[in-house]
Design a protein that fits this description.
By secondary structure, the protein is mainly beta. 0% of the residues lie in helices and 39% in strands. The protein contains no helices and eight strands. It is extended and about 55 Å long.
Length: 107
């Protein structure tokens, strides 16, 4: 509770948590693999060597025989202020419409 008595968080007996406001670093989002391209870079400063990166397609396209994969990572040295870390998401073909996907970085 705040100083005014307003409840801002609660944890139930089963371990479920409810928070009024949760601020996390930008470790999830969505991007688009443009039509005619087979790879796109997703820039994110929260990417680390031990990060797990998950991607899931959102656009209604059959990806069973051509899945989205995390194909590359570039991590930046903290002393290089102009560098931004990124991961690449690729598909084995560029014969597709714009393909929207969601991504999640777990550190």
């Amino acid at each position: 509770k705040t100083a005014d008595g307003v409840q801002v968080a609660a944890i139930s007996a089963t371990g479920s948590a409810t928070l009024n406001q949760l601020q996390l670093p930008k470790t999830a989002g969505s991007s688009i693999l443009p039509e005619g391209e087979n790879e796109v870079k997703v820039y994110n400063s929260h990417l680390s060597e031990s990060s797990l990166v998950y991607v899931t397609p959102e656009t209604g396209i059959t990806t069973i025989d051509r899945p989205l994969v995390v194909s590359n990572r570039k991590l930046c040295n903290q002393s290089d202020a102009d560098c931004v870390s990124y991961f690449s998401v690729a598909m084995s073909t560029n014969n597709h419409p714009d393909l929207k996907f969601n991504w999640l970085i777990v550190n």
